[in-house]
Amino acid sequence: MKYTMSSTTLYRLSGISVLIGGLFAALAAVPVFFTGEDPASSLAATAALLRIIGDMLIVVGLPGVYSRQAQQAGLFGLIGFLFTFVYILIQGVVGDTVEAFILPFLASAAPSLVKGSPPQGLVIFFLVGGLLGVVGSVLLGVMTLRAKTVARWAGLPLIVGVVLSLTAPFLPPVVGTTGMVLFLIGLAWLGFGVWLPRQPTSQLELPLMPLGPEI
């Protein structure tokens, strides 16, 4: 017995994964407005842990969301998707893991390490991730604006959000946090556009293990 799944279903599953992940991570970023950069705050650690869940949902669904408009995206769209994907992994999954588990431990066990300058290698790692995020999100946002197959205006918060989020070292932290929330809302909006049941269906056969005698 074979189970057939349409490409529309795959796109919609990817879209709803990015939609839920983006909204979840955006809501979990709100406590940062109140806790600031305090690594010892249990609220901040809990919010970072929740953001990891949202980040992972985005990572799972983003390839399918990109493939929905891959034909219109071209080479620059592909580069934008890849850079944005790596940016979410670095700044989202890895960064939030550090905030959820490592910084709270260091704040209680070795507070002098937290107050001091971070290791140079770690700074370069996140700096590279941030630069990839700027280039990738701008390209992905422009591609989304030009590709008229999904929620095209989701490209605006993607572009504005990632630029604002990287101004955090130079402006009040609230600006950077606002930018990150906008970026995540842009991703959620993009996922919503793909989730809507408007795409034509083409059949992709996905064989599953038979559960009984073949019919």
TrEMBL record:
Domain of life: Bacteria
Keyword GTP-binding (UniProt): no
Keyword NAD: no
Transmembrane residue ranges: 12-34, 40-62, 74-94, 122-143, 150-171, 177-196
Keywords of this entry: Membrane, Transmembrane, Transmembrane helix
UniProt-recorded name of the protein: DUF4386 domain-containing protein
Protein species of origin: Tengunoibacter tsumagoiensis
